[in-house]
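$ ./design --mode recover --in tokens.txt
reading tokens...
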């Protein structure tokens, strides 16, 4: 039997493809904490004047694990740091993709 759940947040893996010289990429993963939105709230974000992926992430990205600064020190979540991450195009793309997979109930890719 299917039971409707009122789950508010989910920890979800975010695979990131980091561009490198010569058209190569390095793959890395961290875990994001997303607040799952009802469909009407999700739709409203994009229907607002100028609503975009950044607006979505400001609303749904509420934490993360496994992110480090360039020196390897933990890069703990804050709203200011969230803005830094979503300002990086390849990270923003990875976050939006992970959120959509999560909210639509797609299984996360498994690590080898």
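writing sequence...
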């Amino acid at each position: 039997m299917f039971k409707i759940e009122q789950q508010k947040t989910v920890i979800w893996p975010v695979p990131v493809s980091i561009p490198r010289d010569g058209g190569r990429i390095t793959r890395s993963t961290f875990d994001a904490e997303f607040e799952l939105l009802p469909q009407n709230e999700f739709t409203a974000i994009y229907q607002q004047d100028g609503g975009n992926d950044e607006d979505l992430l400001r609303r749904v990205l509420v934490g993360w694990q496994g992110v480090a600064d360039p020196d390897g020190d933990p890069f703990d979540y804050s709203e200011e740091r969230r803005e830094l991450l979503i300002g990086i195009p390849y990270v923003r793309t990875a976050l939006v993709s992970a959120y959509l997979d999560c909210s639509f109930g797609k299984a996360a890719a498994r690590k080898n």
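exit 0
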